[in-house]
Amino acid sequence: MRILAVISGEYGQRHVANVREHAPPAWTIEVWQAPNILPPMIDYPEDYVPDSLPAADLILNFGEHRGIAELIPDVARVTGARAVIAAIDNEAWLPRGLARQLRGWLEEMDVICVTPKPLCSLTETHYGLTRRQKVQYEDPLIAEFARHFGRPELQLTIDPKTRQITAAEIQRDAVCGCARYVAEGLVGLSVEEAEQEAGMLHHHYPCLASMGIDVDYGDTLMHISGNILKDNIAEQVKPFIQYIKPGIQND
Fold it and tell me: What distance lies between CA 185 and its chain's CA centroid?
């Protein structure tokens, strides 16, 4: 799979570095550094896109300026891409209205576009958009990417006698690499510590999602991202945690 990542700063650079390090060998990842300065209103987006870019099957939009999203249809045209993942880890970079427009513009070009909010809500079949809204999609290119990067999935190995985590295998990493970092920090912990420590490790990585309150979630996207990872951990350690009810002797 040929991938072109559109970046404009450190957020995109860190994403690309992690994907390049851990992507399947058959993938090629090229980068286009989008303009750092764009006008408030872009009348002719094509003026800001090079006439020549590496051919791509999938575009990853990691731009840190709302105007960059307006360039993506022309990037798709130049590269021949058939699918786009436009991350929403900060609404200042891709507001919900512009995200809706972007999906519409690309649909008219027969290019599928997903806008996961946050980026680590992406799976092979759906992604998050609001607290209650999950959007289904069907596209083999995006699904192939999401098989490796998206909603974090760790597979924990737990010693039933000591109730300690002896291994944490990455089934699917977050695009930024946070899940891999958390997995390394969980090994050796007790099941009682795991969920809380996962949240702390996620915060210390640090997560790159916004710390401002998002109106669609009523919470910060950083917090939503952390909860996605913690839920994966909590589900696996729950059977090993001993709960003692008052007045009942525990065997």
Answer: 20
C-beta atoms surrounding 6 within 10 Å: 24
Give the span between the Cα atoms of 128 and 62, in whole angstroms: 17
Q: For 127, phi and psi rounded to 5 degrees?
A: -150, 160
Instruction: Give the pLDDT score at 246.
Output: 57
Q: Sign of dihedral through CA atoms 135, 139, 145, 146?
A: positive
Report phi then psi at 124, rounded to 5.
Answer: -75, -10
Task: Note the pLDDT tens digit of each residue in 165-223.
Answer: 999 999 999 999 999 999 999 999 999 999 999 999 998 887 889 999 999 999 999 99
Q: What SS3 state is found at 149?
A: strand
Amino acid at 214: D
